[in-house]
Amino acid sequence: MASNIEVTAATVQRGDIIQLGGNAVRVRDLFQLRQGAKQLVFDSGELLTIHARTRLVAVRMLRRR
């Protein structure tokens, strides 16, 4: 089951799918930076650095229990 959620640098996770510039990109890896920022690495190899207060909408696959 998939759910649209709002993510920040504190809540983004590997596997989240984020819509950027009309393209859906999946977060492959992420790195903590100074002052709460994070650098996201997408499956495409592209990088995005988000500030601690940046808010994005992502699709997250929810695990069934």
List the helices and strands and how they pair.
Blueprint: E1 2-7, E2 17-20, E3 23-32, E4 38-42, E5 47-50, E6 56-61
Quick structural overview:
The chain is mainly β.
Instruction: Give the integer mean of the pLDDT values.
Output: 92
Helix content: under 10%
**Total count of strands:** 6
Question: Please, how many domains?
Answer: 1
What structural category do the secondary elements indicate?
mainly beta
Which series of helices and strands comes N to C?
Answer: EEEEEE
Which of globular, elongated, flat, extended, rod-shaped describes the shape?
A: globular
Summary keywords:
mainly beta, six-stranded antiparallel sheet
Structural summary, described in words:
There is one protein chain. This protein has strands spanning 2-7, 17-20, 23-32, 38-42, 47-50, 56-61. The chain has a single domain (2-61), classed as Roll (SH3 type barrels). The N and C termini lie close together (11 Å). The chain is built from no helices and six strands. By secondary structure, the chain is mostly beta strands. It has a six-stranded antiparallel beta sheet with strand order 1-6-2-3-4-5, with no helix packed on it.
